[in-house]
Queue: 2 jobs
Job 1
Amino acid sequence: MIELLLKEQQEQVINGFILLINSYLEKQKHIYVILEPMEDDEVNHIFLKTGMSYTEPVSLFDNRLEDVGPRISEFGKNKDFDRWIIEKALFHRWTALFISDVDLTTFTEHISYLCNAVTFEHKPVIFRMYPPAILNEWLTALQKENQAYRALGICSDILYVMDFPEQVAHYHFEHNLVTRQELDLLNHQTQEIAVPVEFDLIDIPTDEKWWLTENQVNSLSYARAYHLIHELRKNLLSIPSIQKSYTPLEVHRQLIQLINLCFQYHIIDIFFVSELAKLYFANKECWIAQKEECIKIFQSTQPEADKLENIAILLQGNQEQ
């Protein structure tokens, strides 16, 4: 995602991240990254290339996690690995930075606890809570339940890139309180984000596995759609007509707006969002002209498949006129 910025902007944002990281290293904090080998071949390659050591979460109920689970490594132990994290992994949203006072073994044990979860329907699941797209939505859900400190208070801070490469979410955990800031590394701005508490503290029924409430499970639907953005942008920019008409940053911005519009009307189906994006870019002028009619279809009680078909008929019908 860093490629969305101009060269000088890329350098400014990367340098901003380096300053943040160094401020924690100077305080002798541990900085951990959690990488999913299945996310991309490059993740496996960097471990082979650098010989970077790692730990893996222990499976408490299912040995599948040992085969497909994440790798947890400490930043500051290998210069080549650190450079790859800063220049690649953070901006691909493959990892957040988890800052903590505890050692690697203790941190890994806690991530094991979170990964081995049970849903509100009493179903055991492997919960991959660590990629930024999921972490962002889950942390918001946790704050609404007064559960964020209980889940991730083992960290003093968590940092990760948001929807745009210059935007960084910063969670701070201290004295049972959790605060969230959004940092703009290009304009040197900081905004405090308030998350209203909606629930009383929930009594977790077991200490062995993390309990995923219905509210937390629902938040993951939004995370999956946001995770789609980067793959969808790449696919759209492979279409010559779109590549000719839009810059990568323009495509990215409009995808964010489109997905947020879907969320506004509680549309979170990934197939719907993907197909709607293709219709949008193929019929942009008609979309602008017919936006109110499109929103009426969004607001209707039709099944999502019918909504998509009716939007397609509306846009393509106007295109032919």
Note: The chain has 14 helices and ten strands.
Job 2
Amino acid sequence: MNEHEFIGRLDGSERVSVQVANDGRLQVAIAHEFGYRLDEIRGGGALLTLILVRDDAPDARRRAALTTSLHRANGAWWESCLPPRLRQLPDAVTPAQAGAARIAVHRFDRNGTSAVRAFLLIGAVAALLGAGYAHDTPPLALALLTLAGALVALMPAMARWTLAAHRRQLAVLERFERQRGDGDR
């Protein structure tokens, strides 16, 4: 589905479901400009289903009206969020970058640090089980016990790393929204 077909789906309906054969960041960016927010991501790999919900907040409705107006006038939905004078700046946040950040924030809001912790915990349990089966080979059992301990010890650090990544994504979104206002000057 191309960009114009996707925009046609954003017709003011309360919910829009769309399948994409990419990472979905551009679609999420477009949806945001047209007054929708990401509610759910289904699937994975080569095919994702994005569930978008109309955002009825006053600022979202204003953004949608402006974007719709610009899109009808010249086909450029991105004019309001990436003004021409900012496009050449190296630190300008593109709509696709903002879309990727929105997806990352959405995933963090849904999962927090639990996915990272679960992965490390499963690895630690597997290492402990391996150590139990390898009890007759002390060096291997000791190595697996050490691995299990290291994975458990990594949990707080990985949670902090995940939180730091989340903060970086929020900062990208703040810069993106600030540059929208900078284009008015």
Note: The first helix runs from residue 3 to 9.
